[in-house]
Amino acid sequence: MTEENNKQSITDNEQEVEKVEITQEDKDVKEKTTKRKKKKFFKKCEKCDEYKTGWARAQADYQNLVKETEKNRGEWAQYSERQILEEFIPVYDNFVLAFNHQPAEMSDEEKKWAEGVSFIMKQYGKVLEDHGVIEIRTVGDMFDPELHEAISEEESKEEAGKILKEVAVGYKMGNKVIRPAKVVVSK
């Protein structure tokens, strides 16, 4: 029985050695496979990072485009509004000139009519004001070539460059001059 036990023991030991060898071999194969998988994974991660960076750039470009489009849309709206108001200003000026040349003597009906027309004129002026259109100050101020257009010069006791008379009203909308004021300046 001892011999038989010894043979059995040797056979068991051989099997264990084989198991150990197989296990070591398996570990080597697994390690190589794991290394290959890690390399593939890191390559894919690098690609993912590239894609993610490209996507982030595309998002930023899109946001910039949206902002620029909104800005342009606002500028176009302002330009259109200014263009329309530029066409109405001469009509308003003529309306004011006509109103300022009323006859001194008027009947009661004519006075009522003139009062109604003055309300319309004030309403028209209010519309311009609501759109940011304001008259450029002139008489008593110093001449500014960005705001005023000198149509003549006169001798005066005032210092040179001071505005003496306003010939035509000037208008600006915000910081933009729609029409310069036409003025007479002292020499």
Question: What does this protein look like?
Answer:
This protein folds into three domains: 1-88; 101-131, no CATH class; 133-187, Head domain of nucleotide exchange factor GrpE (Nucleotide Exchange Factor Grpe, Chain A, domain 2), CATH 2.30.22. The protein is built from two helices and six strands; from the N terminus they run H-H-E-E-E-E-E-E. The longest helix is centred in the N-terminal third of the chain and has 99 residues, at 2-100. By secondary structure, the chain is an alpha+beta fold. It has helices at residues 2-100, 108-130, and strands spanning 133-135, 148-154, 163-168, 171-173, 176-179, 181-186.
Number of strands: 6
End-to-end Cα distance, whole Å, is 141 Å
The rounded Rg comes to: 45 Å
How much beta, percentage-wise?
Answer: 15-25%
Largest sheet: 3 strands, antiparallel
Task: Report the average pLDDT across residues.
Answer: 81
Strand order of the largest sheet: 1-4-5
The percent of residues in helical segments reads: 55-70%
Structural class: alpha+beta
Form type: elongated
H/E order of the elements? Answer: HHEEEEEE
